[in-house]
Specification:
The protein is an alpha+beta fold. 32% of the residues lie in helices and 26% in strands. Bound molecules: flavin-adenine dinucleotide.
Amino acid sequence: METRVETDLLVNTVRHFVETEMFPFEEEVDRLGHVPKEIGRQIESRAHELGLYACNLPEDVGGGGLGYGAMSLIEREYGKTSHALQSWAARPTELLMACEGDQREQYLFPAIRGEKRELFALTEPDAGSDVMGMKTTARRDGDDWVLNGSKHFISGPCMPDFAIVFAATGEDETPRGPRKRVTAFLVDVGTKGFDCREGTKCVSYRGYNTYALSFDNVRLGQDQVLGTEGNGLALSGQWLSMGR
Ligand SMILES: Cc1cc2nc3c(=O)[nH]c(=O)nc-3n(C[C@H](O)[C@H](O)[C@H](O)COP(=O)(O)OP(=O)(O)OC[C@H]3O[C@@H](n4cnc5c(N)ncnc54)[C@H](O)[C@@H]3O)c2cc1C
């Protein structure tokens, strides 16, 4: 729990950051419909200097160690400016804390250091609110998984390095009938069969990027499962409730 003095210091730091590094560019972003890369990179680098980059993740993995109370104060300040600009001051998804073994070196730590950017890819063209309607599947093939399907409306300030992709990996019998088993995968941009391109522009969030992802027989190793097989929905629920 932060003291009142610490909280005031934090809020004033973020407020000043927003006023000096984001407010001046709002009009330009509005006019252009995108954030020029050099402006985005400048925000990113100032966020590092101020200790705000990845401030939501625990200190023992290199994050800022801020709790939900402090994060809500930060988000309130960020909420005063353009979403397109403030998304460059990254708060990598806390889902990455589910990384284990080599995944921590490959995904978690680079995301915290700002060397890699991730996407959270759940929504599909025919499955938004209805997550269970997802058509993206990953089927086992020997020791591998083969991923097929598509995602859209996936947020990211710039072309990502990898995506956390949710796919149906089977079906479980439950007292209420069959239920899709959903698993999360860490998928690198550049993997054969994985297409990641800029998607639909938002009307309300001027200049904000979303990506459209498609998977055509993308081969993944068992070490690309995030968490365990079948716990994807629990992980995605964690992300959504943190965001809210
Ligand atoms: C700016 C932006 C960023 C986003 N970023 C991400 C991201 O990073 N990752 C990601 O995975 N997704 C992302 N999304 C997608 C977002 O999570 C979906 O838009 C959301 O889940 C709703 O899905 P949908 O758009 O398909 O709407 P629909 O599910 O088609 O819903 C349309 C409307 O119908 C209502 N509705 C739907 N079902 C019912 C029902 N059964 N009963 C009553 N009303 C209903 C909804 O409340 C809504 O008002 C983003 C979306 C936006 C706009």
